[in-house]
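Quick one: structure for this chain?
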Amino acid sequence: MPSNNILEKIESLPPLPKTIIEIEEFRKKLNKEAIDLLNIIEKDALIISTLLKISNSAMFGFRSKVETPSRAVNLLVINFTISIAIGGTVQNLLMTNLEPYGINSDDFMRASNISSTLASLWLSKIDVDLKEEIILPALLQETGKFILADLIASEKKSELFKSKIASGASVENVEKELLGVTTSQITAQIFRHWKLSDNLINMIEHVDDISNASDNFKKKSQILDVLKTACNIKEPLSDENIEKATQKVLAYGFDVKIFKKAIETLQDRLLEEE
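Got it. Here's what it folds into:
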């Protein structure tokens, strides 16, 4: 259970902007039209600039420059556009120094985008409906680190936190030891505060504690765990993190060949950015 200090920080978060509330309502619709989403996001300059910036990343492999929101939506498709819109806005609202984790907000956003892109490449070969569900939590599941980083710094535990991780302990174990909670639990609490969908919250809440995930959400939480491991926010797609993620793919009973192929495709795209 999060401490009162953490809960107070979550309760004091600013409300979601009207645009994001409209996007969340749109996301719940059974029949979605790209033009309706475009009409919502065109009112928000931050979302548009984030969308165009990410669309032109080599990560997505588009052959020509994306210069208009309508083309970005058409190329990224609806669910990816929604993920980018919500993800960019959430990060902008939280904007905490992530120094205890050894990264900055740009590093965080890059790792998050790599995670959602890997989710798309990997799951498109397994289950398209599942892919559509996982893209958003793949992008957002580390959101709780903004609250935890602030708490670590305010309690003057930054050096202790970093030294324990440097000695080889997992981030989630150090979070649990020093703060009593993990990122996935806090991300879920943040999204409850903002009244985001129960489905999103339930997929994320037990990523750091798979054994407690309900049967309905266990497979999705396992997938998010694999993505979180491979796309570790400090060193996304490092050889070590890919190996750790591959071991989890095996343990969870997923097809290793499909996962490795998705990794290779994404690595090739990222090389084009360098």
